[in-house]
Amino acid sequence: MAPGAFVRVRFPTREKPRRPGLLHIGYVLGATAHEVMLAYTTSQPWPPGMKLPAGARIVDAGEAARLNQSSAFLMRLDILAKLPAAKAWFPDIDQPRQGIVAIAPAELQAELVRLAVNLARRRRELIQMRGP
Amino acid sequence: MAQTRTKSPTARRGSRAIGARKRPAKVAITLRLDADRVRQLQAIAAAENRSLTNYVETALLRDLARHDEADRVITLYAAPATTPRIRPEDVLRAEGESDAAYAERQALLVELWSIPDSA
Question: What pTM did the predictor assign?
Answer without folding.
Answer: 0.72
